[in-house]
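Why do we bother with holo predictions? Because pocket geometry can differ from the apo form. Keep that in mind while you read this record for fe (ii) ion.
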Amino acid sequence: MKNNTLEPIVPYDWDELEKRVAARMTAKRFAHCQRTSVEAVKLAEQYGGDIQRAKIGGLVHDYAKQIPDADFIQAIHDHHLPAALLDYGNAIWHGIVGIYFIEDELAIHDPAILQAVEEHTTGAPEMPLLAQIVYMADFIEPGRHFPGVDDARAVTAKSLQAGVLFQLSHELKYLVEKQEPIYPLTFTSYNAWVRRIGHPADN
Ligand SMILES: [Fe+2]
Ligand SMILES: [Fe+2]
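The structure, written out:
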């Protein structure tokens, strides 16, 4: 009996999923996806999340990261997504628009996994547990080396929700520092999370 089946979440097994994901990206990015999957499983174990969905969501979160811009633009039109998305680029598209490629090419239609992928670039005001797990796994997996990553790991080890707020704050600071445009949902997400769990000592 095969023990790596992913059914009914994915209609084929783990080896096949890895093969399909690897075929769409560089070896370096695939290694990041594998580490994110392992980290997501750890967080799911710690915080009571769905292990199988964390493992799959972590692996596929960047599935669309190397899809050409022209294909994203086509998908934005085909799926009648907000035209405002066209003002942004791959950094936003590979999550929000990437889910359509995951559905079409990987035959994954699980709403919780798709939502986790969709929200991994901007966060969201209300993120379900699985979305929080994939969002944080992507940020703190062992291959990450940005300044502050150790703080991010320490905060997330104590509270997954505090980790989410940490990452949203980090992302905004980073984008402002580089004078990059910011997708409005990132602000909306930050506001919701900072109101929910910011400054716990003041509450
Ligand atoms: Fe990503
Ligand atoms: Fe990633």
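The two ends are 54 Å apart (CA to CA).
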